Amino acid sequence: MEVQLQELIDQIKKDGVEAAESEAESILNTAKTEAKKIVADAQAQAEKILSSAKVENERLTKSSEDAIRQAGRNLLISFRESVTKELKSLLREGVAVVYSAETLAQLIVNVIESWSNKPDAEDITLILNNEDLTQVEKNILAGLKERINKGITLKASDNFDGGFRIAVNDSGVYYDYSAEMVVDMLSNYLSPKVIALMKEVE
Questions:
Q1: What is the pTM of this model?
Q2: What string of DSSP letters covers 104-140?
């Protein structure tokens, strides 16, 4: 009887230990599986964060580079405009010197003599602003005395500041040698050359 009781106790112990071991193994397997899942999820999250950070970094880098390029372009455009403005100012001063009372009359005489040699230019009208006409009229008249008798007319106009205009044969079309037009022509001629020089040093 004691033997049977002992066997029963031993069996209960054995079953209990096996059950406990089985439960422990199940818990351990579940924990390992859960741990693997947590690690996998953490790695996936880390990769996602890293990928997002990389994309954002590339976006910021590109944005910064674009901003730097645009700032460079803006600076270059501003510099070109400044140089062009300064060039135009210098041209305006130079043209003003050439169109001063001492030289304007002789310049007009030379231009009119050149025009008068054209066979189709029978009637030539010279247009100056009132101030220039008053200052240079005597010199023009003296220089073109003979030619004026053949169809040169002097007129005054306040539509431009300095220089002169020439109309031929009352066609309504005139050739503009006004100070501003000459400055614009010279500026249009020189500006591309200045820009090309600046591009060489970029």
A1: 0.55
A2: HHHHHHHHHHHHHTSTT--SEEEEE-HHHHHHHHHHH
